[in-house]
Amino acid sequence: MAGAATNHRILLRGRPAGIPTPDLFEADTVPVQAPGPDEVLLETLYLSIDPAMRGWMSEGGSSYHRPVPLGEVMRGGGIARVLESRAPEHNPGDLVQARLGWQSHPTIPARFLQKVDTTRGDALAWIGPLGLSAVTAYFGMRDIGSVRPGERVLVSAAAGGVGQIAAQIGRIEACRVAGIAGGPEKCSFLRNDLRLDAVLDYKAENDLAAAIGRACPDGIDLYFDNVGGETLDAALLHLRPGARVVLCGRISQVNVQKPYGLRNVGQLGAKQARMQGFQVFAYNPRYEEARAWLAARHADGQLRQRLHILEGLHHAPAALGMLFRGENTGKLVVRVGG
Amino acid sequence: MAGAATNHRILLRGRPAGIPTPDLFEADTVPVQAPGPDEVLLETLYLSIDPAMRGWMSEGGSSYHRPVPLGEVMRGGGIARVLESRAPEHNPGDLVQARLGWQSHPTIPARFLQKVDTTRGDALAWIGPLGLSAVTAYFGMRDIGSVRPGERVLVSAAAGGVGQIAAQIGRIEACRVAGIAGGPEKCSFLRNDLRLDAVLDYKAENDLAAAIGRACPDGIDLYFDNVGGETLDAALLHLRPGARVVLCGRISQVNVQKPYGLRNVGQLGAKQARMQGFQVFAYNPRYEEARAWLAARHADGQLRQRLHILEGLHHAPAALGMLFRGENTGKLVVRVGG
Q1: Is the model's pTM score more than 0.90?
Q2: CB–CB of A136/A206 below 8 Å?
Q3: A274 and B CB contact within 8 Å
Q4: Domain A6-128+305-335 has what CATH class?
Q5: Which of A101, A196, B98, B162 has its CA 20 to 30 A from that of B206?
Q6: Is the dihedral of CA B59, B62, B64, B68 positive or negative?
Q7: Complex ipTM value
Q8: What are the tens digits of pLDDT across the range A65-96?
Q9: How far apart are the first and last CA of chain A?
């Protein structure tokens, strides 16, 4: 435990109005807490930075999670290494996945830890193509979206954490996949690295509905939406009969006072289409199914994920702002240790 | 064929802007057309007046139907009696269901007719609890809505053609059913005749969302929507986890230039809920399933339908306006003959 005597933490100090700013957080240090019976002391390796965290910061919390109390460690999930264990199922050196919080050396009851199978991938794989964003994309595309071979798929925020995986699942399932992203760099990644069939840079378009029509000339069977608002409204105009709209995220709407009013929902009736939201946590009993599928596709090289890694826990407070401004190029991750 | 030498018709003469007005139609008479081989001459008994007809009158038509050409007989479905048949499967005196058009004595190819089983109900039953509105409610509640016993159901336009049946299906399936309607007369019908568990008069409420909260104090598992717009937006605020929203109709939106912007669709994500539209015509191969179920419930007295019957084909041009202004008390029907 040399060098691990101090736990570096980042506490939530204020509630956001709009995009979260670094001044809402405060760093401190406390002594590492020795594990009690059935507890484990961990070294945080990577923290995942996700849009859902915005809800956890608000007074009301999100639908399924109470808000993070002011003055407490910011909630966040990631990958850690076991340093010291008083739980028989965890041994020093093991990798685990957990709600670690924004801290370098959490001490956590063993029942909150999920073991990481390193034969399937290393720590970076488990934050990326085997991580919770990827599991979210898996259930969104397959269970909620009922993706079928040969369909026309559109993914928004397609260069983001969930979007990259959703788009690749579409390709793996033999679909024609179009992706929406902001700026030439992300679009180039989607076109040249992920090999999507069509790419739309929303920042370069005045008429989003017309642009989606060009990117999806035969319409959309499955729209995987990470954005909401105007993008969703425009996509609804291009649904094919029997289409499914997967409401995975709504990053355009989480920081606004007045939500966008969707005018094209009537298309669901005209096209006999369905629109469905979900929370990945409800699929917890089936995570292993998703991981087995994702690991197999990762192993054979069909599935990967570009990460945007910020080096050091001190970057975490500014990371959420980057995410909501779309400044990350790839799934956003903070590297804490290891 | 005494007295049947003349076919009274109503032709479409103009395209509507807003709620259809009687001046868009013109009455004429033509000689009855003798049936050719495999054709049948019919006497129209009842015509059903439905919101979907508004779409058929427009330049663009509706999603699944081309527009009625100007100068042609207005499209409309109903129940008729066979007067003269050159098709072996139809005999004089038989009842049939068909797209008769707004005319007293259509001559129609036999392949477009559906036989009416009078052991299940008379002509009025076949326009009401066994008719296409009822079949629509059946598939909406059961297939699209996945209604389950004990659930909390909300139906809008619950005194209307489809709404009455949807609400009763909810009751038959052992659900707690709340209904929305406009004005004390319709609400009294829902409360005292259909015995709904809660009734909301939207015309008497300033805050629709709060009123739905009072009518559905434990939230909504299944919202059967015939209205769209503001009512749908308000209902979305009260969804329970796993809720289904059935988009059956959007009568509030079909005559407006600028559709209402839905602000609460994000609730689908928060509540892991789905919203789905449908067109009953897609269920054509399964109509018999619906009719068998509806006929059994009709026979044992669990299912009925209040009709609002206008006497005479000359009322048809004004009937659509009544429908969209909510002036009908019950499913709107024009009695033509019989």
Answers
A1: yes
A2: no
A3: yes
A4: alpha beta
A5: B162
A6: negative
A7: 0.88
A8: 789 999 999 999 999 999 999 999 999 999 99
A9: 13
